[in-house]
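Notes from hallway chat w/ T.B., transcribed later so I don't forget. T.B. wanted the structure written out for a chain they're using in a teaching module, and asked if we could keep both sequence and structure tokens in one place. Agreed to drop them here.
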Amino acid sequence: MISTSTLTFLRKLSGNNNREWFNAHKDEYLAAKADAEQLAMQLVAGVREFDGSIGELTPKDCMFRIYRDARFSYDKSPYKTNLGIVVQRGGKKTSFACYYAHIEPGSCFLSGGIYMPEPQTLKTLRRSIDVNYEEFLEIVNEKNFRKYFSAIAGENKLVKVPQGFDKNSPVAEYLKHKDFYVMRSVTDKEICSKSYLKQTLQAFKALKPLNDFFNAAIEDGEA
């Protein structure tokens, strides 16, 4: 679970996104960061019980900096107004599928799979989905998976099936995707509840077959 004080800090930061305010409230930030780090380690321990492939991970492996890179953005706000935890084989900088928890007042969610893959990885994933479409469809239509996630999310899609793939493929709509991730919204009340960790791990366990499918494709592509 996340402390209500962590959400309170992020909510206040959203309305005071400047260095002066942040520096004056640095202690609140450090407390929120420590709170999220504790959750990160609980998630790592829990995920490892059913997915040992993630290996040993530290909070640094799982969490993103709160400082924004605004060099190429019209929005020059210096800080992110959310905290993210990614549990992923090899840490957050690898290309493998992940389990993700997003902490943001009014916009908390769980996610996983693969977001914004590199072109070669994207091609590898599409090819695996196309060739192994029966296995893929069985995973995304499985009852326990659909209990938590509504198949593949995201509006970042091609209009047509990419070149080299059959437009009449049983998975033609999936082949149009540029991302392969899933999402489940979480309320502020839920993320602060004692049952949050258990419920999140149950959702992540339901996600594991999809992550396994993607990771196997990536490993084959790198071989």
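Follow-up for T.B.: The chain has one domain: 4-222. Might be a good example for the class.
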